[in-house]
């Protein structure tokens, strides 16, 4: 979470005052977020899909979800098609990245954002946000793998913690959804968060 002085600076750097609402955390709701990208290298990665779903209290509100296809600026490589299952023709009707990111911002508003290895997704999103807004995403961020790590160390101090997604799903008893889909990844992260919350780590 941004320190108070960092938030003040970010507000001053904000290019579009319409997005001041990103700084206004006004409810207990959260947004679970996941992205698919062309690369696992932040410097090279372009957005391909964005999935997001709202959490309200202890409910995952799947009727309020975002599932966006994004048209990349460069052709997909064969290697990346294998990783996420998306083909160039799947993305031919995708949104321009700027439009997709603006829709995401409107969906998030001032709510905190959570995810599994969220730092990577935010770093990629920030590449698009900074030219638009002058700042990266200022919302409070909740990292599922970090919460799980704390949970496991409380159970077994000094133990090795397996942070692979499959290990979290199995250990916390969460249904396994198809993982190449960004919205399914966001829903999975939301279920993991609620499972940890029930164990006192929300």
Shape field = globular
Question: Mind describing the biggest β-sheet?
Answer: 5 strands, mixed
- Low-confidence parts, pLDDT < 50 over ≥5 residues? none
CATH superfamily: Ribonuclease H-like superfamily/Ribonuclease H
Topology:
Layout: H1 4-13, E1 30-37, E2 47-56, E3 59-69, H2 78-84, H3 97-108, E4 113-115, H4 118-133, E5 141-143, H5 144-155, H6 165-172, H7 182-198
Parallel strand pairs: 1-4, 4-5
Antiparallel strand pairs: 1-2, 2-3
Helix pairs in contact: 5-7
Would you mind describing this structure in some detail?
The longest helix is centred in the last third of the chain and has 17 residues, at 182-198. Strand 2 (47-56) and strand 3 (59-69) form a beta hairpin. The chain has a five-stranded mixed β-sheet with strand order 3-2-1-4-5, sandwiched between helices. It has one domain: Nucleotidyltransferase, domain 5 (2-Layer Sandwich), CATH 3.30.420.10. It has helices spanning 4-13, 78-84, 97-108, 118-133, 144-155, 165-172, 182-198, and strands at residues 30-37, 47-56, 59-69, 113-115, 141-143. With 202 residues, the protein is an alpha/beta fold. The model has no long low-confidence stretch (mean pLDDT 89). The protein contains seven helices and five strands, in the order H-E-E-E-H-H-E-H-E-H-H-H. It is 41% helix and 17% strand.
What's the short version?
With 202 residues, this protein is an alpha/beta fold.
Pick out its properties.
single chain; 202 residues; alpha/beta; Nucleotidyltransferase, domain 5; five-stranded mixed beta sheet; 17% strand; globular; DNA polymerase-3 subunit epsilon; RNaseH-like_sf; Ribonucl_H; 3'-5' exonuclease activity
